[in-house]
Amino acid sequence: MAAFFAFLHHLAAFSLFAALVVQFVLIRSPLTVESARKLQLYDRVYGIAAVVLLVVGLGRVFHFEKGAYYYFHSWPFLAKFSLFVIVGLISIVPTREYLRWGSALKAGQVPSVSAERLKSIRSIIHYEMLGVVLILLCAALTAKGIGIML
Question: What is the pTM of this model?
């Protein structure tokens, strides 16, 4: 069972990052009805992957791996978890923007978004990708037992 949870955890992490990369690529091109719909879709994939990653990750912490005591006494794990929360919070901005496009897309129209706003969304996605890379670094440190505060 532990191996299955590890697989789900990794699958969710890779899915989350892939959805983020696709959003970044799509938001760099001129916005069309099709690209806006894809942005909404990949944002949903991103959100679902994040929830699965969190639930499965906490399951691993409390039931399948080294135990909560180990993880909550590891500064890399605490940094990883904090970064996950921060990335999740900043991801609210693009999600709200994509949701705002709903009525225009239902009407088959390109959403009206300023170039400045699109640039802001691109920057946020950049920060999210950086956060995920830092999370991966913290995961590697945690797995090797670096930073244990016992």
Answer: 0.91
Any long-range contacts for 142-147 (C-beta under 8 Å, 24+ apart)? 142/71, 142/74, 142/76, 142/77, 142/80, 145/74, 146/76, 147/74, 147/75, 147/76, 147/77
| Pick from 32, 15, 52, 42: nearest CA to 113 | 32
Domains of the chain: 2-143 (1.20.120)
Q: Answer for the pair 33, 105: CB distance below 8 angstroms, yes or no.
A: yes
Cα 114 to Cα 63, 66, 77, 111, 125: the distances in Å are 47, 48, 39, 10, 17
pLDDT in tens, 90-132: 999 999 999 999 999 999 999 999 999 999 999 999 999 999 9
* Residues with Cβ within 8 Å of residue 94, at least 6 apart in sequence: 23, 43, 121, 124, 125
| Cα separation values, 46 from 19, 34, 62, Å | 5, 18, 24
Q: How far apart are the first and last CA of the chain?
A: 28
